[in-house]
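Narrative summary of target 7.
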Amino acid sequence: MKEDIFLDPRGGYHPRKILDFDPIFVWPPKPKAFLAWLLKFPGYIWPWNLFYIGIAFISYYFFQPAMSSWSTFNLDWILIVFFRNVFLIILLASFWHTRFFILRSQDDKFKYNLAPLGKEKKAWFLGSQTKENIFWSVFSAAPIMTAYEVFVMWAFANDYLLFPMLNWIETPILFCLIFLLIPVWQVFHFYVTHRISHWKIFYKTFHFLHHRNVNTGPWSGLSMHPIEHVFYFSTLLIHFVVPTHPIHFIFHIQQTALRAIQGHSGYDQLVVNKKSGYALPNASYFHYLHHKYFECNYGELTIPLDKWFGSFHNGTKDSHKKLFKN
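Modeled conformation, tokenized:
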């Protein structure tokens, strides 16, 4: 372990290496490193993006309203999409919360912040951090993500999108490539909207609510003001101007919501086997530092936007001093 790693004085977990960006937007190119990052396990594709792609396929083939009904706004099919989204949010957030914070299946192993989630009744409007987070996730995030999804489905059915539907048989390479590009677009969109939300007027108006979660848990990921949810899920509008298939925008909206839940779970790794110690990468230490220090790490490690614009905290003392002058 390098000596300049920025240690958490509260004793929480931190990675044993300095944070660095993924080998995508680098010069000169590093094709070997890129392919290793793309194809290795665990890596970019597996397990987690493949996991969310799998959920999208299940949603599309078993819990998706008939395409013939999308051309008109009707509660019969809109409610199917809404309750499917509510179910997925509750299922995934409850799984991570139950495992890490109720059953404490891996105790504090890989936990960033060793403090418990907030339970001060006066500090949280529903009496606890988790209850407040659940409220915003279910009663704001779910309806707004559904509204975006329904809007794109309606536009698709009425030929309002710029390109016709991609066909798996005719364009199999592009069809698969879109799945790989969606998370990259999501990181770019998140950085831009997130950076804007830190402008003073927007932070005081709505973004402060998400940052009440200094110590995050799974339900914190979608705990945002409704205005911020409108910003956050607007990532889906890219489907108006790029060729895609409905399963792509289902994956897009679900990955945007469900990855936020996982990314805020507060545990860097998911212990799969206690005896062997085998664990999978889970949450984002990069984003944890943002919740801890606010004015750094607005994006993610996929695109080095924070490095380019001078807001990158790599987890070291030197980086901290450079950013915050102390």
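The chain has eleven helices and two strands.
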